Amino acid sequence: MKKGAILGFALTLAVSGALALAESASAKVCDNDATTSSGCTQKYGGTWTHEDSSKSYNSDHRISKSGATNSDWYEWRFPTLPSGKTTLEVYLADSSFTNREADYEVLSWVWDYDEYVGSVNQYSAPSGWNTVGSIRLDAAKASVTVYGKDHSGASSTRTGADAASL
């Protein structure tokens, strides 16, 4: 009887551990000018300028024109990611990023729509990785989009696109 109870308990722990692992997807970083070997690509619409900066992830970033709109967007395309809950983080370290409310969306290529994850005040964000929000992914490729429009209503701000992590 004890042997059966111990085996049952061990099986419960093993299943619980497997479920916990499946609940959390592994983090993958895509840079604004990703190398081919990373599996990441990028795409954008509107006007985004490439700038070098020692503060930026891999020493460079993209920045929108002043007063950008939702027609100005930057997209990081990730290779196939595992299913599970993950956190979207973005790298913000350059003082020229002044958008007070930059909106971020994620598209899992299994879905037919983008899902809003959150916004970040790029102007006052601490230098480095900043959490946007959590999302659940299906096992598929995914993309992250930031929009150039400042949704706080501030004008003449500039949106930064450096690195994103899922």
Q: Indicate the CATH class.
A: Mainly Beta
Uncertain runs: 4-25
How large a portion of the residues is in β-strands, by DSSP E?
35-45%
Tell the overall outline. Answer: globular
User: What's the N-to-C terminus distance?
Assistant: 46 Å
Percent helix:
10-25%
Oligomer: single chain
- Structure classification: mainly beta
In round numbers, the mean pLDDT is 85
Number of helices: 1
Sheet with the most strands?
5 strands, antiparallel
Number of discrete domains: 1
Radius of gyration: 19 Å
CATH topology: Jelly Rolls
Find the count of extended strands (DSSP E, 2+ residues): 12
CATH superfamily annotation: Galactose-binding domain-like
CATH architecture: Sandwich
* Spatial order of the strands forming the largest sheet: 2-5-10-7-8
Order of helices and strands: HEEEEEEEEEEEE
Please tell me about this protein's structure.
This protein is mainly beta. The chain has a single domain, classed as Jelly Rolls (Sandwich). The chain has a five-stranded antiparallel sheet with strand order 2-5-10-7-8, with no helix packed on it. The chain has a four-stranded antiparallel sheet with strand order 1-12-6-9, with no helix packed on it. The protein is globular, with a radius of gyration of 19 Å.
Can you give me a brief rundown of this structure?
The chain is mainly beta and 166 residues long. The chain contains one helix and twelve strands, in the order H-E-E-E-E-E-E-E-E-E-E-E-E.
Task: Write a concise keyword list for the protein shown above.
mainly beta; about 45% strand; about 170 residues; 5-stranded antiparallel β-sheet; 1 helix; Jelly Rolls; 12 strands; 4-stranded antiparallel β-sheet; globular
